[in-house]
Design a protein that fits this description.
This protein is an all-alpha fold. Helix 1 packs across helix 2 and helix 2 packs across helix 3. The radius of gyration is 15 Å and the shape is elongated.
Amino acid sequence: PAHDSTDMLVRDMVRYLHDNYNRPLRVRDVAAQIHLSERHTNRLFRQVMGESIKAYLTRFRLEIAAQLLISHRTVGHHLSNVYLKLGVTSRAELARIDMSGDFHLRG
């Protein structure tokens, strides 16, 4: 059925986001992976996941950052190492996330 194929497409999108969260991503990158338009990709993702691709990726990256900060706290890693692992290239860019919610994901 159509519902099953939609769920499979969204699972593929989530897998792609998880595999590539540490590099700059655009909605068009996700759409290209499943061979759909950006608009249709966004709509399907929101329909199944209840949030936009951008919101999901931002939340996922923040969860990863929290895990890295907790796990690296005792081994002396710096915050700069954490944000570089997330695909953020500067402290200014990291600060901009708090203000805009934008985490390299642009339409």
